[in-house]
Specification:
By secondary structure, the chain is an alpha+beta fold. It has 11 helices and 4 strands; from the N terminus they run αααααααααβαββαβ.
Length: 326
């Protein structure tokens, strides 16, 4: 009896701790900000699939494209199934892989985004069916040209994918496979998207002619390039190097006002032979603008170089710390 009571109390304490942790997450601004980003991003991604991919029957390397193939095969067999339903089923299977192989946070976020893709496609159909765009005789897609449909789809979806990857989420489906490739084989995320997508794209031979499959493969390649471009743009930082005799004022401004770290290096001028100090720091674009304004306003003479950095690891903080002043 005593053992049962102890076990029940232990289980109750674990449940209480987990519930408190969930409530703490739900109260945080970060949770609701990321929820809003994921919802809006998926609504845009659903529009890209519904308006540009579904009517043209383009099979760009994605789970949506694979779903179109499966739907086409089943329709030919006399078993019509909506693409959105197939998307939902495939994503449900892949979500288990995301949870087990990538991590709980990624799995939980992708669980939400993947499951709302199908319903959001249905929502776009209810709001404004793509058939209303097919106004010309013989028109088979919204843009009435497979290349334009491809470009519109890739650009819109790639932007959505990059935003999702930035907050450790994804649009589901192919992105889960790409993230697994990225984690275990250490390819860039865009390359991972291309590899996973190309394999799926080849299934299009079941419903599409050779030309359409080639267009899909090209689209998959462009998709990978676009994801890398948008990801690099979102993660872009400035690596700033400053050589000045007034380095102490600059150092204090970076630490106390911008709230970033910096490194100091002893340097010797190759021409003058004079010894000096070089300051190196990583800043966002806005922080770099603040630094340059400070230098101009205080008439600080300096030699400054700045270059773009697309990836930062370690103790970099994506958001400013609270300013601390005496």
């Amino acid at each position: 009896m005593h053992f049962r009571l102890v076990r029940t109390t232990f289980a109750s304490n674990i449940f209480t701790k987990k519930m408190n942790k969930v409530l703490e997450i739900l109260k945080s601004k970060k949770f609701w900000t990321e929820w809003l980003v994921m919802t809006v991003g998926m609504f845009i991604a659903a529009a890209a699939v519904y308006y540009f991919l579904v009517p043209s029957k383009l099979v760009v390397g994605s789970i949506s494209g694979l779903s179109i193939v499966i739907a086409g095969v089943m329709e030919a067999a006399g078993i019509p199934v909506k693409v959105s339903i197939i998307v939902l089923i495939i994503n449900a299977v892949l979500l288990l892989l995301a949870w087990l192989l990538i991590g709980k946070e990624f799995g939980a976020k992708t669980f939400y985004t993947a499951l709302i893709l199908g319903p959001m496609m249905d929502a776009w159909e209810a709001i404004y069916p793509y058939t209303k765009f097919l106004t010309e005789p013989g028109q088979t897609s919204v843009m009435n040209d497979p290349w334009f449909d491809l470009l519109c789809f890739v650009l819109v979806l790639s932007a959505s994918q990059a935003i999702m990857f930035r907050i450790n989420a994804s649009t589901g489906g192919l992105d889960i496979l790409a993230k697994i490739v990225n984690k275990y084989f250490h390819f860039e995320i865009g390359t991972s998207v291309t590899i996973a997508g190309a394999i799926i794209c080849l299934t299009a031979f079941a419903i599409n002619p050779f030309q359409m499959v080639i267009i899909g493969l090209i689209g998959t390649w462009i998709n990978g390039i676009a994801v890398d471009y948008f990801t690099a743009s979102l993660n872009k930082r400035k690596r700033v190097c400053i050589i000045t005799s007034d380095y102490e004022r600059v150092r204090k401004f970076i630490i106390e006002d911008i709230c970033r770290g910096c490194s100091l290096y002893d340097v010797t001028g190759g021409y003058s032979g004079e010894r000096g100090v070089e300051i190196q720091t990583l800043l966002t674009q806005n922080e770099f603008s603040d630094l340059m304004k400070f230098m101009r306003d205080n008439k600080i003479t300096a030699f400054i170089t700045a270059g773009n950095v697309s990836e930062v690891y370690g103790t970099w903080h994506p958001h400013k710390k609270l300013k601390v002043r005496n």
